Amino acid sequence: MLKLLTWSISHRFKDVENMSTDDLHKIIGTSDEEVDTLVIDARRKDEFLISRIPGAKHLHFLSDQEKVDSFMKGNINLVKETRIVCYCSLGYRSSILAEKMSKSGLENVKAYNLEGSIFKWANENKSLEGSQLVHPFSYVWGLLGLDFSKWQWPEIEA
After folding, report:
1. What is the pTM of this model?
2. Does 80 or 158 have the greater pLDDT score?
3. Which CATH number fits domain 2-150: 3.40.50.1100, 3.20.20.140, 3.40.250.10, 3.30.70.600?
4. 84: closest CA among 101, 60, 107, 106?
5. Are 97 and 70 contacting, i.e. CB atoms less than 8 angstroms apart?
6. How many whole angstroms separate alpha carbon 151 and alpha carbon 135?
7. If you ran DSSP here, which 8-state letter would residue 157 be given?
8. How far apart are CA 76 and CA 128, in angstroms?
9. What does DSSP assign to residue 64?
């Protein structure tokens, strides 16, 4: 089911290039003198607070273009080439954000969507910051792409 969903998302966002979880995993933690990597979590804040890909920063996918541009200017070395890898649960919300980032007009920036996003990352047992479990976004989305043993809902205070 996850492969069908990721194909459908990539078909819907034809102008957004995807990066595989394996490629991002290789990039994280390595030093590259020519290219910086910025990982951005496009989910809601409650999802981000449970777990995230190591080093990820949070920017909600519904941020307007002005906020996206401001975020980029505050987080990108304007002299060095930067690859931005956006992710969410499965890739839909992060494709929207990657599309907005591509419209920023910064020539040294290339935005990607992480194919399969955090669901695929967690299903492959790649490390996460926070919990090693993932907020499933909703029951339906969780059932469509996240191994049930990886689910974690926010704790509700009494």
Report:
1. 0.94
2. 80
3. 3.40.250.10
4. 101
5. no
6. 6
7. P
8. 23
9. -
